[in-house]
Amino acid sequence: MADSILVPQVGQDLTEAKVVALHVKLGDIVKKGDVVAEVESEKASFEVEAFAAGTVIQLPYGVGDTATVLQPLVILGNPGETVGKAETVGTSGTAPQALQPESKPTADAPPLSQTGDGFRSSPLARRVAAVNGIDIKRLNGSGPKGAIVLRDVKSVLQGGMRSLASPGQHADASSINTRSLRTGTGDPIVFIHGFGAELAAWRPLVDSIPVDNLMVGLDLPAHGASPAPGQAGFEQMVASVAVALIAAGRTRLHLVGHSLGAAVAAVLATQQGLDVRSLTLMSPAGLGPKINGDFLSGFLDAKSEPALKAWMLSLVHEPASLPGAMVRATLNAREGTELAAGQSRLAKSLFSGSTQLFSIRDALKQVGVPCRIIVGREDAIIPSDQTENLPGHVAIHKLARIGHLPFLEAAPLVGRLVAETVRAG
Predict the structure, then answer these.
(1) Are residues 244 and 208 in the same domain?
(2) Whether residue 220 sits in one domain with residue 323
(3) If we measure between CA atoms, which residue out of 282, 296, 262, 225 comes closest to residue 410?
(4) Per the structure, how many domains does the chain have?
(5) In this structure, are 138 and 204 located in the same domain?
(6) For a tag site, which of 18, 159, 164, 384 has the least CB within 10 Å?
(7) DSSP label at residue 137
(8) Predicted TM-score (pTM) of this structure
């Protein structure tokens, strides 16, 4: 007979909690006392333990979902057993032998902390405030006993207080589009694409990475399904991504980035509120001043498939490595949208002709987790020799006969290197 591990009641006045992590997948065998998930409210983060043993036969919620308290979070049973409609989420029935799990705060997120002067705030509010450079003690709290909670920080962001980017700007978590690339368990691997691309560019790589982690892609501002920001800039881009990850509960994660996305990932690894476990950076921008300005201009100006293909061939060493579908998808994404215009505005804040206007070298000095850089020796966009004189803890792989897209041109090797970095973290 099925046993349900319920979403814990993490506060007397709370009816919902966000699923931050699932440590089990369908078919896994769970023992009594195993931590099966983590959930987070505006008050605290909690680990959810199993108080029964069995096989996972249903997971009503996924990572990132908002779950209703006292509803089934994980359903255990015998292999091959199924559960009826009344036992699933969204029904008024109660799962048989429903077990209220013990929930305990995680080490890095104590419940509704209080300082000696009586100040109270939630972990999620503190994280978002820290990323945006907001002095949380200046805010008025609307939570229990006047505590500062997430909605208080959000209201300040909407009012345009100082953020990580610069005065007068704010980072909007809702502007960043994210999508699961592959299901899995444990700490998620978050993929950040390069300039002019989108999260779908990672699909050829994800199946070449021999790990079981959840894999998630995101669209940078002015890319894919993420709108262009009102005021573009590298710091604002980093802030927007950081707030989106924190708001989604993806605070403990591995980062994989390409080109501009690799630069964003490197700086994210130094931000408060994020627990980045490993970094894999492919053809990273920000290691030196040089970039192919002619490519940037031609890529942004191209209006037809032949013209766009002519420029995109610069991305690879072997022309056959560039799929025609990638060229068509890039062109189709621009048609009838403001995508190209938004990217052109963004490019002006990031590059000047053939010069990069930002650097990640200081960020790499601060990174204390496994970090691997993968570049192609024949990269025609960002010269591979800009990887010289990096900190000793950064592993560097220079691949022969590979251009700017190593994750596409050498997917099996790159997939294995990503896996090794993730396991090391």
Answers:
(1) yes
(2) yes
(3) 282
(4) 3
(5) no
(6) 159
(7) G
(8) 0.66
Name the 3-class secondary structure at 171.
coil
φ, ψ of residue 282 to 5 degrees: the values are -110, 130
- C-alpha distances in Å from residue 296, one per residue of 99, 305, 327: 57, 16, 15
Q: Does one domain contain both 273 and 144?
A: no
């290691």: which residue's tokens?
A: 287
Among 87, 105, 123, identify where a domain stops.
105
What are the residues whose beta carbons fall under 8 Å from the beta carbon of 34, sequence distance 6 or more? Answer: 23, 24, 49, 50
**Per-residue pLDDT, 109:** 38
Cα separation, 104 vs 370, whole angstroms: 29
Residues 118 and 71 in one domain: no
- Give the pLDDT confidence score for residue 131 in this predicted structure: 64
Spatial separation of the C-alpha atoms in residues 41 and 44, rounded to whole Å: 5
How confident is the model at residue 125, as a pLDDT?
74
> What is the domain range of residue 124?
113-158
Lookup result for tokens 């991305």: 315
Q: Which residues pair with 189 in a beta bridge?
A: 215, 254
CATH assignment of the domain containing 416: 3.40.50.1820
Q: Are 340 and 300 in contact (CB under 8 A)?
A: yes
| Cβ burial, residue 122 (10 Å; 0-12/13-18/19+) | buried
Dist CA 297 CA 391 (whole Å): 32
Structure tokens at 11: 């506060």
- Which of 68, 86, 105 finishes a domain? 105
261 and 198 within one domain: yes
pLDDT tens readout for residues 114-151: 555 567 777 667 767 776 667 778 777 776 567 787 77
Residue (of 224, 228, 267, 229) closest to 245 by Cα position:
267
CA-closest candidate to residue 106, choices 162, 23, 12: 23
Mean pLDDT by runs of 10 across the 425 residues of the chain is 78 73 89 81 70 90 87 89 52 38 40 55 72 74 72 64 37 73 93 96 94 95 87 85 86 96 96 91 98 97 96 97 92 86 94 97 95 98 96 96 97 97 95
Categorise residue 416: left if φ over 0, alpha if ψ from -120 to 50, beta otherwise. alpha
